[in-house]
Amino acid sequence: MKESYPFELMALPYEYNDLEPYIDEETLHYHHDKHLKTYVDNLNKALKDHPRLHSMNLPTLIVNIDSLPAEIQTAVRNNGGGVFNHNLYFSAMRKPREDNEPSGELAEKIYKKFGSYEDFKRAVTDAAMGQFGSGYGWLVTDRHGNVDVMSTPNQNTPIGVNTMPLIPLDIWEHAYYLKYKNKRIDYVENFFKLINWDYVERLYKNRENFFK
Ligand code: MN3
To answer: What is the pTM of this model?
Structure first.
């Protein structure tokens, strides 16, 4: 997939019904085919007349947002964030597993930070539930591999000079409302069964590529 302008709609790495029963096929169609597509189109529209930015990848655009032309900063924050966050969200899920925990170095860092996997889940859940309105709960790492949990509003993304997003928990209503209605907490609890820890551990292990 192209990593710079013009950005493309990512292909899902699974079938639309593979996340059932926790994320239903209809929600996934809307979320990927409509919502993400709109972010991709609007990001390309914002960058179209700025050829100087056409070679930049998404993390570079986002981390340098304050030095972009003023008239496109909001569009890049919302739509660039929207593309980055959703590409990671869809990539970091797989068919549900009831017993779904990380392993290796990432698991050790999670236990060191939070105490146990259950404590980690509670920290992410609290971050997601405490975010008023639309946004995300996150697992992030720094370049040394120290993990943390945070939340962001809207399509803001926690990319920073020493912060790499690992897992976005999308808590916009479009992510769950068709199936869960107002029961955000049920969606959040079920999300943990969908985390593709193999994918997330690979990202974590290769973090130097992100920070270079
Ligand atoms: Mn979303």
So the answer is: 0.97
